[in-house]
Write a structure and sequence with these properties.
The chain has helices at 6-14, 56-64, 87-98, 105-108, 111-114, and strands at 18-22, 34-36, 38-41, 44-48, 66-71, 74-82, 117-122. With 123 residues, the protein is an alpha+beta fold.
């Protein structure tokens, strides 16, 4: 696994423009880019599916475990890893800070979306 550089983390962490494209069934063709929220916690990038684990992009990400992202001027091939446990509390706090005041914040820190938390790592 490769790590994000500090510059990449800054760009990703400061943008609201994060597009995720898990690979299709062939394992190489990126799916349609989906705009989602992202946060940086402890040097890692995390995303959640607004519609929980039933979300199309989330199902594809968990099946393929790889894809591409575009965020803050960065285009990268990535790996997807499901996340569970107490890190979700810090991810909630990061979402609350980055997206404070948004009417979409409460659903993004709900039990449904916490179940669909994914760490995004460069490949």
């Amino acid at each position: 696994m490769t790590a994000w550089t500090p510059q990449q983390l800054e760009k990703i962490g400061s943008t609201d423009d994060f597009h995720i494209s898990p690979y299709r069934g062939d394992g190489t063709t990126p799916g349609t880019p989906t705009w989602i929220w992202s946060v940086v916690v402890d040097g890692d990038v995390y995303v959640r599916a607004y519609n929980g684990t039933a979300s199309r992009w989330h199902r594809s990400a968990m099946t393929q475990r790889a894809g591409q992202i575009r965020a803050g001027g960065i285009d990268a091939k990535v790996a997807f890893t499901p996340v569970d446990g107490e890190i979700n509390d810090r991810i909630d706090a990061a979402y609350a800070k980055k997206y404070a005041g948004s009417p979409y914040l409460p659903p993004m820190i709900s039990t449904r979306t916490r179940a669909a938390t994914v760490r995004v790592d460069p490949r």
